[in-house]
Each structure stands twice: as structure tokens, then as C-alpha cells.
Amino acid sequence: MEERGIEIAKELLVGLLERMMLRAEVMGFMREGALYLDLKGDREGILIGKHGRTLESLQFLINRMVNKQMKEPVKVFLDINQYKERRADSLTKMAARLGEKAKRMDKNITVGPFNAHDRKIIHLTLKEDPSIETESLGEGEMKRVNIIPKK
């Protein structure tokens, strides 16, 4: 069943990329009940998009396409050349830097907008510091993060 899911996902993704006139090597594996696809290829920047938004959309599409063909639902995660890991690292460093700046200036700092996944990384990074709290601001999918130094 797992192998079948991986094959279906790889076929669908390669087919989608071919229609976009892009070539990539797709590797798939299962971990903790979820299906992971990792892409390596040319013109990765186009597939990642600004702040990973195109990658997010591709992941959504592949999720829907795969689950349409599977008997049991499976969560599909798509990554391109460890982009998500690099993005998380970058957001963690940015959050720590802005947290220190908010404390030093004793002022709220608002950053963003970010998607839910990116906001979660920022909130979790700053949660470790007892002298700072965070909140999400705005409506819809993309929200800002307010970093608030505690008095």
C-alpha cells in the first residue's frame, strides 16, 4: 500500500512538472504515516516561488490529486532541495534577532505577512524567551506576527 502511494504521487508530480515544461528527479518515502516527496531539478526557483508560495500550492495540488486515487487518506509533503529546512532555519534566526531587538528597544515589532507554518516557527522560537510574547494579527491565510516585550 505504501509503495503504491509513493508511485502514484511520483507519477502525478512528474506528469504535472512535464506539463509545466520542467524536469526534475522525484524521490518519495513514507514516515510516520505521511508521504514525503523531494524534488531535485532545474529551475527550482520557479517551483519554490516567492517565500515558498508556489511550493505550497504545488503541495496542495499533489495532496488533492494523490488522495483522489488512494483508498485511505494520506498527508503528502513536498519539498525542493531541502528548501523548507533552510526556510525554517532562516525564520528561526530572524525571530531570535527581532526578539532581541524588541527587548532592547522596549517596543513591539510587527513582521510579515506569513502563512500558518511560518508563523508557527516564529511563535515557537520566541516562546522559549519568558520576556517576550507573540500574537498573530490580521485576517485570512496570511497574517502578521507581533513581537511584544513583557514589562
Short précis:
The protein has 151 residues and is an alpha+beta fold. The chain is 50% helix and 26% strand. The chain folds into two domains: 2-81, K homology (KH) domain (GMP Synthetase, Chain A, domain 3, 2-Layer Sandwich), CATH 3.30.300; 86-149, R3H-like domain (Ribosomal Protein S8, Chain: A, domain 1).
Spatial arrangement of strands, main beta sheet = 1-2-3
Averaged pLDDT: 91
| Number of E strands | 6
When the domains are counted, the total is: 2
Basic shape: elongated
Radius of gyration: 18 Å
- Under the CATH scheme, which architecture of the largest domain would be assigned? 2-Layer Sandwich
The H/E string reads HEEHHEHEHEE
Spans of at least 5 consecutive residues with low confidence: none
CATH class of the largest domain: Alpha Beta
Strand content: 25-35%
Q: Could you say which structural class the secondary elements and strand pairing correspond to?
A: alpha+beta
- Find the CATH topology of the largest domain: GMP Synthetase, Chain A, domain 3
Largest sheet: 3 strands, mixed
What is the CATH homologous superfamily assignment of the largest domain?
A: K homology (KH) domain
Distance linking N and C termini: 55 Å
Secondary structure: helix percent: 40-55%
SS field, number of helical segments: 5
